[in-house]
Amino acid sequence: MSSKFRLTKTACYIGYVVQAIINNFLPILFIALQSVYGLGYEKLARLIVVNFVTQMITDLLTPKIVGVIGYKRAAVICQGAAAVGLVMLGVLPKLMSDTYLAIMLSIVVYAFGSGLIEVIISPIIETLSTENKSGNMAFLHSFYCWGQAFTIIVTTLLVLLFGYKDWQFIPLIWAVVPFVNMFVFLKSPIIEPQKNHKSFPFLKLFKMRKFRLYMIMMLCAGAAEIAMAEWASMFVQQALGVSKVIGDLAGPCAFAIFMATGRVWYSLVSEKIDFKKTLIVLSALCAVCYLVVAICDVAFVSMIFCALCGFTVSISWPGILSLGARDFSEGSSVMFSVFAMCGDTGCCLGPWVIGIVADSFGLKMGFAVATVFPLLMIVTTAMSMKKIKVANSKE
């Protein structure tokens, strides 16, 4: 790869760190929001829903946006929107009488930025990569995980510094990262999509059985990953009775580090292993992790399996994206958008299901119900493998 694109890669890597900040800093503040505003589990879960529903809508709009303004301007806008939304979250709750509405409005703005990030960063890297595309995609997505761990550690320290009542300073501090990266993208050379390139429309792709299976797989990938990531902090603190700092480090932070490790590992071995067989094995282990967390009363054991869950979900999202780019190359621009929308649907659905169940039966039962997502991943992945074998046998 030409050295002139090093800054582009750096901006993309930081872009995923920004998305990690957007998706992970607020759940660390859930107990602060509970104590200051008296929000219940369902209202907290609704904030996650607003975030990912906004990202889903943005996912669908992004191909049109990129078609009009191109990747470079879209990259600059997504960082700017993320910065503005974080600033709004730090300011609006003090200015508006309806604090909950102020939080949701802020989330909509920075989630729009996150949705753009999700759809445009992967194809930007895909156009730069010439070899080991699957490995490069996994390495790119590992920065989301490292960003997640970084976000959790720093947010936890900031909570200790400011306390629950002054939580609004935290998003203001995080706004600096996308603000700076906005200027990095301005300086970065980016390969724009060819104007004469025609991509398959969604309906043509949707008629393909394999494409529909991949859509379900992406939904399961998002749900299995985010359900644990979003609720691990509160679960470890309230259900297991450990301190805030220990809960954040042993829960979502350890989860993120294990997920990052899995993605770096996959970037090194992706050309040597069968992705779908590996995905089935890891999904089975993911279901085991959710069940152990749900039924085990030993805090240390539950925290270990919270962390291990990060490794089990590590390769699913980047691996399916890379596989889809190979299998649906004629529709890749639409594919990235649809797959991102499906993944965000899972990101929305997984934590919401846990929140609804937790309100009535407790968090442990919520995690037990969430095992449906890795189990469904196993079924759909196996079905996609069967389809390939049948096709080969007919040739």
- What's the alpha carbon Rg, rounded to whole Å? 20 Å
Proportion of strand residues: under 5%
Which outline best applies?
globular
Order of helices and strands: HHHHHHHHHHHHHHHH
Distance between the termini: 37 Å
Query: What is the helix tally?
Result: 16
As residue ranges, the low-confidence spans are: 387-395
Compute the average pLDDT. 86
Largest sheet: none
**DSSP strand count:** 0
Proportion of helical residues: over 70%
Structural class: mainly alpha
What can you tell me about this protein's structure?
There is one protein chain. The protein contains 16 helices and no strands. The chain is an all-alpha fold and 395 residues long. Helix 9 packs antiparallel against helix 10, helix 13 packs antiparallel against helix 14 and helix 14 runs antiparallel to helix 15. The C terminus is likely disordered. The radius of gyration is 20 Å and the shape is globular. It starts with 5 loop residues before the first helix and ends with a helix.
List its traits:
395 residues, mainly alpha, 84% helix, globular
How would you briefly describe this protein structure?
By secondary structure, this protein is mainly α.
Topology summary:
Layout: H1 6-28, H2 30-37, H3 41-95, H4 99-128, H5 133-162, H6 169-174, H7 176-187, H8 202-206, H9 209-239, H10 244-269, H11 275-295, H12 299-312, H13 316-327, H14 332-361, H15 363-369, H16 372-394
Helix pairs in contact: 1-3, 1-4, 1-5, 1-7, 1-9, 3-4, 3-7, 3-14, 4-14, 5-10, 5-13, 9-10, 9-12, 9-13, 9-14, 9-16, 10-12, 11-12, 11-15, 11-16, 13-14, 14-15
